[in-house]
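JOB MANIFEST
job_type = single_chain_structure
chain_count = 1
residues = 271
[input]
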Amino acid sequence: MDHKTNYIEQYKKLRELNDGKKPLRNDFLKFCKIGDFQLSKAFGKDAYSKLQQACGDTPNKLELERTSIEKILNQYGELVRLKKEVPVSADWLEANYSPQPDGLRKVHNLKWADMPIFFIENNQDKLEWKDVIEILRRKSPTTISSRSNKAFENIVEKIVEWKPDRKRIIEEGYKIELRHYLEKFFDLEEETGESNPDLLLNKKYPIEVKKDPTQSEYDRLLGQMIRHNKIFGSAIAIVTNISSEDRFKKFQKLFTEVHHKLGMIAEVISK
């Protein structure tokens, strides 16, 4: 049996074990005990997408690219209607809408905080969204202003634009590469200040970098974010090399809920 046929069979087997759900790339690689190079050798460029297509699935990558602005706005409007208030990103995650909040930036250069205004601008003449627009106009001004922080948003945008050169064996490798990237734009210190963050930008914006955290490490990271926020007024978590998408999504949802309830400015970004 050639490698390509074997990978197709292994993908289908993993999909069955996953109750028919499409396996994530990292889960598949771990299941087959192979690396990206071996998969690319069998399928070429965009290897995992080609494997998914060969197994009759729509590639995860294409699903992200195909989520249109119109669909995103429709999902957002329905969420506002359901909640009867401006939803937070945790509500979006709970509804299992796509793309994820950080995907909005990557695919459409759209910030979650700008969604109320963006929705109104694109739907203000549509009668079917009249009730939703009324809710947004009534509720969104204080929500937006209370979470507005241009310097913080600028840092988040720079991090979203950052693409690691390659997969790193240890967490420190990602931290070093990120440091070299960010110090081109900001004053940067390492492991300094009362809460001792991995990186501190402009003496005010703490960043923690984690590589494929375990559940206990996610729990610890949440506590670190809250502590950073209390001292500096904001916090950013960067999670790399994610092997369990479900575990990350649960953390992302809890992270957003906790910081929203506490009125804290925070962001979690996957790489």
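[summary]
Residues 141-148 have pLDDT under 50 and may be disordered.
The first helix runs from residue 3 to 17.
exit_status = 0
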